Amino acid sequence: MKSDEAKRPRKRRTRDRILDAALDLFNDRGPDRVTTAEIALAVDINEGNLYYHFRTKELLVLALFARFEADAMVLVATVDGADEGAAATYAGFLRQWFSLVWSYRFLFRDLVGLVALAPALVEPVRTISAAMRLAVGDIVSRMQKAGLVDIPESEHDAVLTNLWIVSTYWAAYLNLQEGVSEFGQQQLDWGLQQVSSLFRPYLSAEAKAELEALVEIGA
Q1: Burial of 192 (0-12, 13-18, 19+ CB in 10 A)
Q2: How far, CA to CA in Å, does 139 sit from each of 87, 148, 181, 207?
């Protein structure tokens, strides 16, 4: 028989709790407005304990980006096990991708300031950007083979590039261009609307219906 202690759920590691708290605070106010003292307070540890795990705020940002990168790769892998001929597979991927970007929105909303705070972030951002663009290209190719989308070869590269830019940096655009500092469901839906407008002219009737349903979820 297991002891009561063994039955108890294990407490999350301090390092993970620090990252969870930092993510919430960074998303809410931006890394430049959050102090390490506030992060430590949110985790209920002293700053010395926080510095044991992360000596600088830059290391915290890099660790959160590594988390995002891992989650993005898991998301891409889900398409491999799904029905490649179903429009819902790709509509679902789009919704999940936007949700992932939303979960780590500070990385995109505050990208310019983050590069100044964490110069080491530049290379990982380029790497994941290249990997995800390849993944998106592969997904669009699967959609074309399934007859869900028809993008002329001459427009293929431009459409893929625009899809990547809009689906990834919509939060940064709203923040820098429109002065939006507080993000909610309305902003998430706005991003989905922008991507749907890029896709719509090339979609089959089935895929268009799935995309419209996707956009209406948050309406």
Answers
A1: buried
A2: 11, 11, 32, 13
Chain segment 52-100, per-residue pLDDT in tens: 999 999 999 999 999 999 999 888 888 777 777 777 788 788 878 888 8
End-to-end Cα distance, the chain: 52
Do 146 and 85 meet the contact criterion of CB atoms below 8 Å apart? yes
pLDDT band at 22 (very low <50, low <70, confident <90, very high): very high
Helices 87-103 and 205-216: crossing angle, nearest 10°? Answer: 30
Q: Round to whole Å and give the CA distance between 135 and 5.
A: 44
The set of residues, in sequence order, having a beta carbon less than 8 Å from that of 195 and lying 6+ positions away, is 94, 98, 163, 166, 167
- Whether 36 contacts 57, CB under 8 Å: yes
Note the pLDDT tens digit of each residue in 125-153. Answer: 888 888 888 888 888 888 888 888 899 98
